[in-house]
UniProtKB/TrEMBL annotation:
EC number: 3.6.5.4
Keyword presence, Magnesium: no
From-to range in the entire protein, with total length: 1 to 296 of 462
Function recorded in the entry: Involved in targeting and insertion of nascent membrane proteins into the cytoplasmic membrane. Binds to the hydrophobic signal sequence of the ribosome-nascent chain (RNC) as it emerges from the ribosomes. The SRP-RNC complex is then targeted to the cytoplasmic membrane where it interacts with the SRP receptor FtsY. Interaction with FtsY leads to the transfer of the RNC complex to the Sec translocase for insertion into the membrane, the hydrolysis of GTP by both Ffh and FtsY, and the dissociation of the SRP-FtsY complex into the individual components.
UniProt domain SRP54-type proteins GTP-binding: residue ranges: 269-282
Keywords from the UniProt entry: Cytoplasm, GTP-binding, Hydrolase, Nucleotide-binding, Ribonucleoprotein, RNA-binding, Signal recognition particle
Designated name of the protein: Signal recognition particle protein
One GO location term (cellular component): signal recognition particle
Primary localisation category: cytoplasm
Length: 296
């Protein structure tokens, strides 16, 4: 088992104890350990570099407060900076639109889009007292449409039928028309994913976005995707104006450094975390707690 960042830093601390300030060379040694810890937590390298520079600027010349040792001071600076970076932005869903408020779900296949769609439906029904309709525009996998039907029922929301011979845009427009005529507050649109980024997929979701003009476009990303999450995030960010991120599978082993990478690359706030396969396994993202997890 790898030692925690605090343990690693305290090994370096012996050399600096007794000093009133953390010197530049102490900071360099410690930042090397912080860098390792972030890379082990799967934060992408360019994001780590940027982050380390910010921490360095804050740490240099920082007073060693009271009985705390310099290692603890640095861990606290790193923790605060991590939490601030990941926690910026509005956490809950924006529904400020002429009803129905449309929420478009984007992400790779397997990221957890369909599951998250149903979790959000449940969240909107229970926490915000909304009447919610879901629809699947995934015309490539009939099983995905069926899966959305099943989980929507578990959420207590309504599901709009679609079939693989329809065009995604026609499905979306039909669902929107139905939602308007039946006074739904929210329409959640689940979309097709691929195993890897591809241009046809991006063109299709861009077209859906242009057609629906959703108030929220959520990027769903698997925390277990690790270092690769940055490339996926970059591709979706280039295709769509993302308004939020849902980080799934945080109940797994991943330290969740992907949160920092994805936040930095997209500029969008991390709104929710998926914490189980079950319909109630969704939490509002807690940046402070997540910073502790990333640091280990
Ligand atoms: P999609 O292809 O993006 O629609 O992904 P799915 O919603 O089908 O999810 C893929 C797999 O991940 C399914 O087996 C889900 O049960 C699982 N899954 C989704 N979210 C979570 C989560 O937060 N935690 C865990 N443990 N599993 C999840």
């Amino acid at each position: 088992m790898a030692s925690t960042l605090t343990e690693r830093l305290s090994r370096l601390v012996k050399t600096v104890r007794g000093q009133a300030r953390i010197t530049e060379s102490n900071v360099q040694d410690m930042l090397r350990e912080v860098r390792m810890a972030l890379l082990e937590a799967d934060v992408a390298l360019p994001v780590v570099r940027d982050f380390i520079q910010r921490v360095k600027d804050k740490a240099l010349g920082q007073e060693v407060v009271g009985s705390l040792n310099p290692g603890q001071v640095l861990v606290s600076i790193v923790h605060k900076e991590l939490a601030a970076t990941m926690g910026e932005g509005v956490a809950d869903l924006n529904l400020a639109a002429q009803p129905p408020a449309i929420i478009l779900m984007a992400g790779l296949q397997g990221a957890g889009k369909t599951t998250t769609t149903a979790k959000l439906a449940k969240h909107l029904i229970e926490k915000r007292k909304k009447k919610v309709l879901t629809v699947s525009a995934d015309v490539y996998r009939p099983a995905a449409i069926e899966q959305l039907k099943t989980v929507t029922a578990q959420a207590g929301a309504e599901w709009f039928a679609s079939t693989p011979d329809q065009k995604p845009r026609d499905i979306a427009l039909a669902a929107l028309d139905w939602a308007k005529r039946h006074y739904f507050d929210v329409l959640l649109v689940d979309t097709a994913g691929r195993l890897a980024i591809d241009e046809a997929l991006m063109a299709e979701i861009r077209d859906l976005h242009a057609t629906l003009r959703p108030v929220e476009t959520l990027f769903v990303v698997d925390a277990m995707q690790g270092q690769d999450a940055i490339n996926t995030a970059r591709a979706f960010k280039e295709a769509l104006p993302l308004t939020g991120i849902v980080l799934t599978k945080l109940d797994g082993d991943a330290r969740g450094g992907a949160a920092l990478s994805v936040r930095q690359v997209t500029g969008a706030p991390i709104k929710f975390a998926g914490v189980s396969e079950k319909i109630d396994g969704l939490e509002v993202f807690d940046a402070d707690r997540h910073a502790g997890r990333v640091l280990g």
